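We close this part of the discussion by returning to an individual protein. Part of our work consisted of pairing the sequence of a single chain with a tokenised description of its backbone. No coordinates are needed to read the tokens, only the vocabulary itself. The amino acid sequence and the backbone structure tokens for this protein are reproduced below:
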Amino acid sequence: MKKLANFPGITVCLEATGVYRFDLSIAPRDAGVALMVVNRVPGQKLFGPKSSRNFAKVLMKNSKADAVDADTLAQYAERMDFIAWTRPSDEKTALRSFARRVDALTRHNQPLGWCLLPT
């Protein structure tokens, strides 16, 4: 990522899908690379939740192949207004990490709890 920051005008455009979006967004942003995240969560009113999909429909691209999605996002980044992704505060990031850890422990221990119940 740091090498990308040396090239002026580089923009990374990510689609906000799945649980890895946040972790993947931090690396380019921290390296100083311009980052736009499409399909943001509902609390952020900059893009709608289906904006990249609707953009693909306008381009008449119905395939969900990775190469087609990458090309669609590249065109989206070229044609649409750039809105930089803002990294959440350290407090929000820490809270998110804590909540994910609690969730992981709860999911991991739940099946064990059922095994340990007396019969």
